[in-house]
Amino acid sequence: MTDIIQLLPDHVANQIAAGEVVQRPASVVKELLENAIDAQSTSIKLVVKDAGKTLIQVIDNGIGMSTTDARLSFERHATSKIKSADDLFNLHTKGFRGEALASIAAIAHVELKTKTEDAEIGTKITIEGSEVTQQEPEVVAKGTTISVKNLFYNIPARRNFLKSNNVETRHIIDEFHRVALAHPQVEFIMMHNGSDVFNLPASNKRQRIVNIFGSKMNEKLVPVSEATEMLKIDGFVIKPEYAKKSRGEQFFFVNDRFIKSAYLHHAVNAAFEGLLKDGAHPGYFLFLEVDTKSIDINIHPTKTEIKFDDEHAIYAMLRATIKHSLGQFSIAPVLDFEKDTGFDTPYEYSKKSPVAPTIDVDRSFNPFKNEPKQKNIIFPFKREKKNAASWESLYAGLKDETTVVDQDDSIEFESEQVSGSLFETDQEENLRVTFQLQNKYIISPIKSGMLVVHQHLAHQRILYEELLKNITVQEAVSQQLLFPLQLSFSNPDLVFLEDLKEQLEHTGFVFSQIKNGCVEISGIPVSIAESQVEQVLTQLVKDVKEEVPDAGFSQNDLLAKSMAKSMAVKTGTPLKQEAQLHLVHQLFACKEPSVSPGNRPVLVTLDANDFDKKFM
Ligand code: ADP
Ligand code: MG
């Protein structure tokens, strides 16, 4: 048999390596920012266009490269950072594998401009798909500028695999946060599509956190600090009362490198034990310093995983230190680690003698009686009064003793064609009678027993289907505002809003301007009140930011879900009977009336047979 093994040509090898190092635009951002840090820059600017799909540029004022080094930097395994295997155990730089530039140059159009301090003139190199297409002297300032254009231009499968601009931007901002947090003494600027997203002056850790996450963050931070020979811990945890349901700010840095560690995360969780509400996640910015010899960063190509020699000791110390800080800032009620919570009966209760249960009956209670007049509930359904007569006909034939219709016609509804396929005719008949329980549930008798509808979830379902239809069919009507509404958003948030603009316009929003931290809105969807707009948009941006992008993401769906959630009538809102009925009827006109957009049950039915058993 003839020999069949060949050595792969360099450009193929580089493309394969690129598969590991460069998953998406954000990976390029990470590598370039880290190179700029390794080059001892004090000011780093990141410029991004179209979520990095068109351009990623990093401009630094670091040590720069000589002409020879500039050329060599694109070779695989070309690095100035280690010389021998021993150096691997004494790493003080971010990079060391010498793979990033070679990988990036294999899958993009790259331009490098660089100059060292003492060189008269700098160098410019252009590379496309690992081929140097141009090299010439160039007059530039000290430092390095790398521009990466048309990422994955020669790997269409990869390019098509990229997520929406929104999601890719989120990843880029995440990487930017990680590097900027680890190096507060370096000035960072980020621009996206021509506008400033971040402008972070050189500062200390606390200021950097606040500059990134907003001034409200300042009061939420509890300092954490401890130093032993083995480990130095420094940073902040977020007070438990500000913990989020979603995994918000969770950052570990080891020797100024962002790392992911489920094990250390567990240690923080353990320190917060008993202080967090169910389902809430602790927030933290923790900077660990350990001897470089006691860790191995070499276990993952993107270097976000790390192995510690003495994991258990680090776990214990981290947990104890955070617990101590939470206690010191009188957040944790007890500092006694070994306390048995089983005996924690509150003092007042232990002394009380048991009281026999009593039954209170309010004989004058009539669930169908008029509620006291409520002022101005804005019930965000369509408001045109088209067919009031046929709406009223729904009441025809109702027995008088069961219902008193509130005649106040301050709320008007359009009548609806109700499919009501779930209910037979005589049940529909029954569905003309509803009452509200605890301003939360709408109850109605049905043939088999009783229907209980969760008003907030039901309304979410109705709005969700309506919004989704509007976004996809693009036929929503909007109400013009007499005076345009001006809302301010942080620049990073504006990036998200801009990306959602088109879909939002399909729901009925009209944006007259989005720029310089301000959004001007001249029209809004008919189903929303002007006073709700700010909250709905703020929540939307928040939800988009927190979306886990890899979990079958659909932006339209997310948008409809988020808006439906903030627009839906809240639990605790009293509803007049027309509103209750309208809600129930609209619900049954939905495609999927029984589950909320967030997959919670919207309604339950209670069987009369079950009541029978209770009366035996
Ligand atoms: P690594 O960072 O692992 O060494 P890279 O491929 O990222 O590998 O970079 C290769 C080399 O190019 C670096 O070791 C460094 O000498 C040089 N280099 C890259 N970016 C810069 C920069 N912004 N400023 C100065 N030198 C740089
Ligand atoms: Mg590097």
UniProtKB/TrEMBL annotation:
Cellular component annotations (GO), alphabetically ordered: mismatch repair complex
GO MF term list: ATP binding; ATP hydrolysis activity; ATP-dependent DNA damage sensor activity; endonuclease activity; mismatched DNA binding
GO BP: any one term: mismatch repair
Keyword Transmembrane: no
DNA mismatch repair protein S5 domain: residues covered: 209-327
Keyword Lyase: no
Pfam families: DNA_mis_repair, HATPase_c_3, MutL_C
Signal peptide, first to last residue: none
InterPro entries per record: DNA_mismatch_repair_CS, DNA_mismatch_repair_MutL, DNA_mismatch_S5_2-like, HATPase_C_sf, MutL/Mlh/PMS, MutL/Mlh/Pms-like, MutL_C, MutL_C_dimsub
MutL C-terminal dimerisation domain residues: 433-575
Keyword terms of this UniProt record: DNA damage, DNA repair, Endonuclease, Hydrolase, Nuclease
CDD domains with a match to the protein in the record: HATPase_MutL-MLH-PMS-like, MutL_Trans
Physiological role: This protein is involved in the repair of mismatches in DNA. It is required for dam-dependent methyl-directed DNA mismatch repair. May act as a 'molecular matchmaker', a protein that promotes the formation of a stable complex between two or more DNA-binding proteins in an ATP-dependent manner without itself being part of a final effector complex.
Record-stated family: Belongs to the DNA mismatch repair MutL/HexB family.
Name this polypeptide is given: DNA mismatch repair protein MutL
Gene name in the database record: mutL
